[in-house]
Amino acid sequence: MNVDVLFNQFPILKSDRFTLKKIEEQHVDEVFEIYSNDNVFAYCGIIPKHNKATVKSMIGHFERDYLKKSRIKWGIFANDNPDHLLGIIEAFDFQQKVNMVTIGYFLSESHWGKGIATEAVNILLHFLFMDVNVNRIQAEVMPPNETSKKVLLKNGFMKEGTLRQATLWSGKGIVDLEIYGMLKEDYEKASG
After folding, report:
1. How far apart are the first and last CA of the chain?
2. Inter-residue contact 74 to 90 (CB < 8 Å)
3. pTM assigned to the model
4. In this structure, are residues 171 and 161 in contact, taking their beta carbons and an 8 Å threshold?
5. 78: buried, middle or exposed (CB in 10 Å: 19+, 13-18, 0-12)?
6. Which residue has the higher pLDDT, 121 or 190?
7. What is the DSSP code (8-state) at residue 108?
């Protein structure tokens, strides 16, 4: 895993339709729209935040986590409206010994069902496998979260199993998690 590609300078990732880039303080309204919506986090270990000042300070935490090299949160922006945040996609839990990373994503509810998460995951997979040289990417999904599972399956992830009552998620208690994974060799075969 080439962590320098991740952490020397904040990576900006692009496709024809979308750009994944740093979330700035000017995006506080859109970040608040995401984090204050209970529906967005119905299947997530994040407790919604209903205070804009709290959300504003969270944007600073995104930067702190990046500087600590523990997590990268990209804002998902449409190229035709580059200042309007549609959602967030992240890479975290960098396990260099096994060359593995976990990803997660969530969109503003007004942008659900438009293929945005599917394409953002596709952009991130290409970057992590081809530029960072990660060998394994995984995602953890609560079993009832059918929409998120579809995003992963469309991108070539494989359901590897269910961890029963394996994790404590804020606001949810102890939950089952389905693990979806993809190896670099799977990605290269599919893109090949």
Report:
1. 21
2. yes
3. 0.94
4. no
5. middle
6. 121
7. -
Window from 9-18, 38-47, 56-65, 110-119 with minimum mean pLDDT: 38-47
Distant-in-sequence, close-in-space partners of 147: CB < 8 Å, separation ≥ 6: 112
State which amino acid sits at residue 149. Answer: K
∠ CA 92-151-43 to the nearest 5 degrees? 65
Q: Which residue has the tokens 């859109």?
A: 30
Instruction: Please name the helix (run of DSSP H) or strand (run of DSSP E) that holds residue 129, with its range, or none.
Output: none
CB-based contact 133:1 (threshold 8 Å): yes
Residues contacting 76, CB < 8 A, separation 6+:
18, 20, 85, 86, 87, 88, 89, 105, 107, 116, 117, 120
**Of 140, 2, 44, 120, which is closest to residue 35 (Cα–Cα)?**
44
What number is the average pLDDT over the span 157-179?
A: 94
Collapsing DSSP states into helix, strand and coil, what is residue 122? helix
